[in-house]
């Protein structure tokens, strides 16, 4: 029997709220299979369309940002129509809304960005002035820093739409998260992965985050057993950077943490929100990390460096109306 408001320890079924893009469904099905294998639960999916899925004609940074992809799913949790929401962690706002928690993070897929093209093997092979598709400010500023000659053009829509636009010849190459392509069996479209020193990923890229209601105590305990601790600590460091800087997707910000043994190395960079010709500011810090508090402290150390090395001036250029989603 299912109690729609609170799960009991004897619950054998649960409902996952998910967006209906192919990637979101793959991710929800992945979690469904995991819950079935680990706990023997039978899991339903509740597919939903979010505002972020409907608005396809404008860059996300112009229409209110990350929260657009998660709000409807939270309403389903609030109303008891679902118990769990599965998200690409990089789409999850840095501050969770009152009443909701990010309860766990699963093992991360490849965090890198991928170079996808029908004619060229890698960024260096692109001819002068080649047209590259991406709407991510983070990708734009890093592309322009390396190749100021490139003609970077907006590209929105789900993964299939973006690949179709490439195949129609609208771009010479596009940049996509490697994780999404790999999950959908589209790894063959990746001509090369951009290395971390040429394209630093977004905070949380490649990781899956599970969100529940704060008062869902029992499901919380079950979900916490699924946590991939190295990823959990790494994304806490990455998200601390983004949170401290306002968490806005109007800001070209990258943050990525990697493990060197017991040491977590956190790299981050900031660009100018309106002018990709302004030099990037980057910072790195590393420390032995075993707790989320230490991971967040590492994030704040990187933020202090970014700010003092010119990041403050870049942040001051952020239009205040769009500074928060
Ligand atoms: N912003 C959309 C989005 N959210 C998560 C992914 C890919 C998978 C991931 O990073 O986990 C993508 C597509 C992309 O950036 O190419």
Adjacency order of strands in the biggest sheet:
2-1-3-10-4
CATH architecture label name of the largest domain: 3-Layer(aba) Sandwich
The profile of the biggest β sheet is: 5 strands, mixed
Got a strand count? 13
What is the terminal-to-terminal distance? Answer: 38 Å
**CATH first level of the largest domain:** Alpha Beta
Order of helices and strands: EHEHHHEEEEHEHEHEEHHEEEH
Small-molecule binders here are: ligand PBG
Molecular shape: globular
**CATH structural fold name of the largest domain:** D-Maltodextrin-Binding Protein, domain 2
Strand content: 15-25%
CATH superfamily of the largest domain: Periplasmic binding protein-like II
Q: How many domain units?
A: 3
The number of helical segments is 10
- Helix-strand category: alpha/beta
Provide the low-confidence segments as ranges.
1-8, 321-325
Pfam families: Porphobil_deam, Porphobil_deamC
Function: Tetrapolymerization of the monopyrrole PBG into the hydroxymethylbilane pre-uroporphyrinogen in several discrete steps.
Cofactor: dipyrromethane
Catalytic activity: 4 porphobilinogen + H2O = hydroxymethylbilane + 4 NH4(+)
Could you characterize what this model shows?
This protein has 325 residues and is of the alpha/beta class. The protein folds into three domains: 13-108 and 205-227, D-Maltodextrin-Binding Protein, domain 2; 113-193, Periplasmic binding protein-like II (D-Maltodextrin-Binding Protein, domain 2, 3-Layer(aba) Sandwich), CATH 3.40.190.10; 235-322, Porphobilinogen deaminase, C-terminal domain (Double Stranded RNA Binding Domain), CATH 3.30.160.40. It is built from ten helices and 13 strands. α9 (229-244) packs parallel to α10 (292-316). It is globular, with a radius of gyration of 20 Å. The two termini are 38 Å apart. Mean pLDDT is 91; it is low at 1-8 and 321-325. The structure holds ligand PBG. The ligand NCc1[nH]cc(CCC(=O)O)c1CC(=O)O binds at residues 88, 90-91, 176-177, 179-180, 205-206. This is Porphobilinogen deaminase. Tetrapolymerization of the monopyrrole PBG into the hydroxymethylbilane pre-uroporphyrinogen in several discrete steps. Its EC number is 2.5.1.61.
């Amino acid at each position: 029997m299912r109690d729609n408001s609170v799960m009991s320890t004897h619950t054998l079924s649960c409902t996952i709220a998910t967006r209906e893009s192919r990637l979101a469904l793959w991710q929800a099905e992945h979690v469904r299979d995991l819950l079935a294998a680990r706990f023997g639960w039978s899991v339903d999916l509740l597919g939903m369309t979010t505002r972020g899925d409907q608005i396809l004609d404008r860059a996300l940074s112009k229409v209110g940002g990350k929260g657009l992809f998660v709000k409807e799913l939270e309403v389903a949790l609030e109303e008891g129509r679902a118990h769990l929401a599965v998200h690409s962690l990089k789409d999850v706002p840095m501050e969770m809304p009152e009443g909701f928690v990010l309860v766990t993070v699963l093992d991360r897929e490849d965090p890198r960005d991928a170079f996808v093209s029908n004619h060229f093997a890698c960024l260096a092979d692109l001819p002068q002035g080649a047209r590259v598709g991406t709407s991510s400010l983070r990708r734009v500023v890093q592309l322009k820093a390396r190749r100021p000659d490139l003609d970077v053009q907006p590209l929105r829509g789900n993964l299939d739409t973006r690949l179709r636009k490439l195949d129609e010849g609208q771009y010479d190459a596009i940049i996509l998260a490697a994780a999404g392509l790999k999950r959908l069996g589209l790894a063959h479209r990746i001509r090369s992965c951009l290395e971390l020193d040429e394209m630093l990923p977004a905070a949380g890229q490649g990781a899956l985050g599970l969100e529940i209601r704060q008062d869902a105590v029992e499901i919380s305990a079950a979900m916490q057993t699924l946590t991939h601790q190295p990823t959990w600590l790494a994304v806490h460091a990455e998200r601390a950077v983004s949170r401290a800087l306002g968490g806005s997707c109007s800001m070209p910000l990258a943050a990525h943490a990697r493990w060197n043994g017991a040491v977590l190395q956190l790299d981050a960079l900031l660009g100018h929100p309106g002018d990709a010709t302004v030099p990037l500011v980057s910072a790195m810090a590393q420390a032995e990390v075993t707790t989320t508090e230490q991971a967040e402290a590492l994030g704040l150390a990187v933020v202090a460096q970014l700010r003092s090395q010119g990041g403050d001036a870049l942040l001051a250029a952020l239009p205040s109306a769009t500074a928060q989603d």
